[in-house]
Amino acid sequence: MMKRVGLFPGSFDPFTKGHEAIAWKALELFDELIIGIGINSRKQYLFDIEKRKHHIQSLFVGERRISIQVYQELTVTFCQKIGASHIIRGLRDSKDFQYEKSIAHMNFQLVGIETVFLLTNQEYSAVNSSIIREIHLNGSDISSFVTSPKLLV
Ligand code: ADP
After folding, report:
1. Nearest CA to ligand 1 atom 3
2. How much is the pLDDT for 1?
3. Chain-centre distance of CA 70, in angstroms?
4. Is residue 8 lining ligand 1, measured as CB closer than 6 Å?
5. What is the count of structural domains for the chain?
6. What is the rounded CA–CA span in Å between residue 58 and residue 115?
7. How far is the CA of 69 from the centre of ligand 1 (A)?
């Protein structure tokens, strides 16, 4: 049987408890999950890319079915490169849905790759990377929203 590989892409700046829960849920559906940290050269990030990668790796130590990779190409191009059959995205609300829907349609049109949407856990539905960046920049503790945040600094 072919191994079913899923790609969970994102900026993960930083990778939150909400993202973490989505990754575990996705692992129930795929044999292998690749968490892809996408780099967009026109975007500025707060947390260093190597630290983001190391942080995510540390959360899944011992889970051999999850690996972390950094990529710079289009998400669908990266899917083809790594042999992922599906893209996984997390949804918090209808705003996420509206945004994700158009990307998913375009990705399907480009290369025929389907996107699987997983609903956030209720307790994480307000967890948002950009608000976490603000909290961190203002010197407050982000450990309610991010596991092991010390690895990011
Ligand atoms: P991007 O810059 O690609 O939107 P993010 O790192 O912000 O990347 O998010 C990656 C994915 O995780 C997106 O599908 C986003 O909707 C989802 N996501 C973000 N926060 C949460 C959360 N708290 N719970 C579940 N999914 C989330």
Report:
1. 10
2. 79
3. 11
4. no
5. 1
6. 26
7. 16
Distance in Å, CA 104 to ligand 1 centroid: 14
Q: What is the pLDDT of residues 110-144, one digit of tens each?
A: 999 999 999 999 999 999 999 999 999 999 999 99
Query: In terms of residue numbers, what domain contains 134?
Result: 5-151
Report the candidate in 106, 104, 148, 132 with the shortest Cα–Cα distance to residue 45: 132
Tell me what pLDDT residue 141 has: 98
* Residue 141 tokens, joined: 């503790």
Q: For residues 111 and 106, give the distance between their C-alpha atoms in angstroms, rounded to a whole number.
A: 9
User: Which residue is closest in CA terms to ligand 1's atom 16?
Assistant: 90
Percent of the chain residues past pLDDT 70, beyond the cut: 100
CB 17 less than 6 A from any atom of ligand 1: no
User: Which amino acid belongs to residue 150?
Assistant: K
Q: Pocket of ligand 1, candidates 11, 19, 107, 120: which has the most ligand atoms within 8 Å of its Cβ, to mutate?
A: 19
- 75 contact partners, CB below 8 Å, separation of at least 6: 7, 9, 36, 38, 87, 107
Has residue 2 got a pLDDT over 90? no
Please indicate whether residue 25, judged by its CB atom, sits closer than 6 Å to ligand 1.
no
CATH code of residue 131: 3.40.50.620
